[in-house]
Amino acid sequence: MKANLTHATRALLPTDIKQGLYDRSSVQCGIVHLGIGNFHRAHQAVYCDDVLTSGDMRWGITGVSLRSSEMRDKLTQQDGLYTLGVKDGEDTAWRVIGSVQSVLFAPDDLHGAIGKRRIDCSRLVPAADDRRFGGATLGPHEIDDEIGRAHV
Question: How much is the pTM?
Answer without folding.
Answer: 0.77
